[in-house]
Design brief:
Helix 2 runs antiparallel to helix 3 (51-70), helix 2 packs parallel to helix 4 and helix 3 (51-70) runs antiparallel to helix 4. The radius of gyration is 15 Å and the shape is globular. It has seven helices and no strands. By secondary structure, the chain is mostly helical. The chain has helices at 6-17, 27-48, 51-70, 72-89, 93-109, 113-129, 133-150.
Length: 151
């Protein structure tokens, strides 16, 4: 997850939130930006405890939930990963673990190797940060394998 550079990502996220996108015209771009900005927002919240970032992450999660209602195949795994990051931010570790698992399994079932890789990577960071280094290594190894397979 290349966005772990706080200052660079905070600056890019601030710029993104200044844009007003026409979702119907730019749906694909909007979905990707919403997804990534949500992940970034929850990560920045964990680094700063600034509620602005938590609220932004929640807005991204709400948008992804709306899209998942119309196309579970394309968006449900993304929703679960955002949910995992929200739960991690709230220190609801069991709920986070389950949401990471759901995101990984849905990504695998729906053949979204890139989402599976990202979900495994973020699950690895989650387990590492809560002191479960063996589980972290397993997820990082799986993420690495998926990224290589994805190309």
């Amino acid at each position: 997850f290349m966005y772990r550079d706080y200052y660079g990502m905070a600056s890019a996220a601030e710029e993104y939130f200044g844009y007003k996108l026409d979702v119907w015209t730019l749906l694909n771009i909007a979905c990707v930006q919403t997804y990534i900005s949500g992940l970034v927002s929850f990560w920045i919240y964990r680094q700063t405890s600034d509620c602005k970032w938590f609220e932004r992450g929640n807005r991204s999660k709400a948008a992804m939930r709306h899209w998942a209602e119309s196309s579970q195949w394309n968006f449900l795994q993304k929703y679960h990963l955002l949910e995992a990051e929200e739960n991690f931010s709230n220190r609801q570790y069991e709920a986070a673990r389950q949401s990471y698992h759901n995101a990984i399994q849905l990504s695998k079932n729906h053949k979204f190797l890139n989402d599976e890789a990202l979900s495994c990577e973020l699950a690895g960071y989650f387990f590492f940060e809560i002191g479960k280094k063996t589980e972290a290594l397993e997820y990082f190894t799986r993420a690495n394998s998926n990224y290589h397979e994805w190309g």
